[in-house]
Amino acid sequence: xxxxxxxxxxxxxxxxxxxxxxxxxxxxxxxxxxxxxxxxxxxxxxxxxxxxxxxxxxxxxxxxxxxxxxxxxxxxxxxxxxxxxxxxxxxxxxxxxxxxxxxxxxxxxxxxxxxxxxxxxxxxxxxxxxxxxxxxxxxxxxxxxxxxxxxxxxxxxxxxxxxxxxxxxxxxxxxxxxxxxxxxxxxxxxxxxxxxxxxxxxxxxxxxxxxxxxxxxxxxxxxxxxxxxxxxxxxxxxxxxxxxxxxxxxxxxxxxxxxxxxxxxxxxxxxxxxxxxxxxxxxxxxxxxxxxxxxxxxxxxxxxxxxxx
Length: 309
Ligand code: SF4
What we know:
By secondary structure, this protein is α/β, with parallel strands linked by helices. The chain has eleven helices and twelve strands. Helix 4 (101-112) runs parallel beside helix 6.
């Protein structure tokens, strides 16, 4: 059963000079119950704008978002936030330094329900225990917790309204490697116990390979490749996916080892993307026609891919 369906989503920003940044450009995907969808791509490819659009922190320009079959336009914000919540990259930045742990965790509960202080403290204690924090830490402030503990607090807060979907925006990239593994295992445990579905945004392919069931590779707001993890990680089709895997050194396949490196240029400006295939200026196997023709998204070898080859 799908808990989140996104159809032809566009989030565009008008900028000075009448230009438009197409941060999310015609994305479609489905998230199933109890599954994790990884969203990968370089910084600036539109991952965070996608997350903000799903959370109604940015307004969509076009397209549809369905939460459990209900269109987002038919839902109040309160209803939406009972369905979907977000965990941010930097726990210190995202937690109010003047609030105690119990107040941070139950903030969404205080805003969206009529719960009393006593009920909030009880709920905060239960959630602290669930995410592996000691309940006697309930009256402590964020700076009194370690980085990993603060991310546990952020996760506890995201669960307070019993959502079905969590957006995890680079949730472990600010943490030490040993702590990353603990948080990833906690997320797996919570998913199993609470039947949660995750959108897991990351630039780290090895983390996404570990946690996700399906992966969507984004480049300048568009889908490059989207499919089950064994297809994306073991037999990638799109040249951008192959170059990402090659740089991450996580594929042992000869096809990836022998694939040419990404042409050494920076990600083009989303304000002025290349003609034709947006990737053609960096694609190591680009042909002449790639700068002239926009590749359509097609189903090839059981995944969606956008490449003229
Ligand atoms: Fe590379 Fe051409 Fe495919 Fe784009 S369409 S990814 S430039 S081969």
